[in-house]
Amino acid sequence: MNAPAREAGPPIHGGRSYDAVAHRALDAGPFIAVGLALRSAGVRAPEILATDAEAGLLLLEDLGGEGILDASGAPSLERYEAAVDVLVFMHGRAWPEDLKLPDGGSYRMPPYDRDALLVEISLFPDWFGAQSGEPAFPKDARDDFLAAWSEVLEKVKGGPTTWVMRDFHSPNILWRPDAHGLARVGVLDFQDALIGHPAYDVASLAQDARAPLSEAEEAGLKARYVAGRRTQDAGFDATEFETAYAVLAAQRATKVLGAFTRLALVEGKPGYQRHRDRLKALLRQNLAHPVLSDLRLWYEPYICE
């Protein structure tokens, strides 16, 4: 892993960079701290064999190259279900906020707070429109759009919290067919983990932008998660979970549509645009939930079929 320390971006959000507001890792320290804690708890993150933290170089265990999509790129439900079981395990235990580093230092995991969620949402009005027949997002409406989102986020504030891997989806999940139980699932790319609502990672997995899961398959994964959590805690609130799931799934799809457009336009990676139709469909599905009724009109010009 080659992850040298980098500078935060320009101060464009109230004097802070996007990286600062979104709590994105700027060096290898968070990956080391989170990875060690995951492994000690029984989650199959790669073992760190050697480090040169100053240079940002890590020698990692090779967990293989087989993912949770099959050879044709379709999702393997058995593997997705095993990944859900990992989330059930993770969300059923208490995780520390302060983590130790091998050099004696420490790392405090940031919260997935409203500012972080909103700055990710801002990628949509800043980048998405005027690309494939959609109108440009009016610049003078940006603040009102984010204010509307801020009100919706208040409706899930105060819910349960856990570690959120943030990108718990097919590119970052490996399948280890010779292992057993939770060890069958290898987890990567967790340096940007935050403390937030457990529904976020469930939505990240079940609404994978790269995997054509049907609504029925998605519902089955959610049902498996709820059943697992209820086994751990008879008081698990499935209604609260469904509400948070809809909000955070819509937040994620909104962020990803903006981020993928930016990758295509700024970094010359047009391949990300092939996921636009699926992300639009996911947004339409999520916006059907009553908790998001105040946001539907904002999206109509951009995600209609």
The fraction of residues assigned to DSSP E strands is 5-15%
Please tell me the CATH architecture by its name.
Alpha-Beta Complex
List low-confidence stretches.
none
For the termini, the CA-CA separation is 41 Å
What is the share of helical residues? 40-55%
Which CATH top level class fits? Alpha Beta
Strand and helix order: HHEEHEEHHHEEEEHHHHH
The largest pleated sheet is described as:
2 strands, antiparallel
Bulk shape: globular
Give me the Rg, rounded: 19 Å
**Whole-number mean pLDDT:** 94
- Strand runs, count: 8
Structure description:
With 305 residues, this protein is mainly alpha-helical. The protein has one domain: Aminoglycoside 3'-phosphotransferase, Chain: A, domain 2 (Alpha-Beta Complex), CATH 3.90.1200. Helices cover 44% and strands 9% of the residues. The longest helix has 29 residues, at 238-266. The chain is globular and about 50 Å long. The model has no long low-confidence stretch (mean pLDDT 94).
Keywords:
mainly alpha; Aminoglycoside 3'-phosphotransferase, Chain: A, domain 2; two-stranded antiparallel sheet; 11 helices
Question: How are the SSEs placed, and which strands pair?
Answer:
Layout: H1 18-22, H2 29-41, E1 48-52, E2 57-60, H3 77-91, E3 98-100, E4 106-108, H4 114-121, H5 123-128, H6 142-154, E5 162-164, E6 173-175, E7 185-187, E8 194-196, H7 199-206, H8 215-232, H9 238-266, H10 276-287, H11 296-303
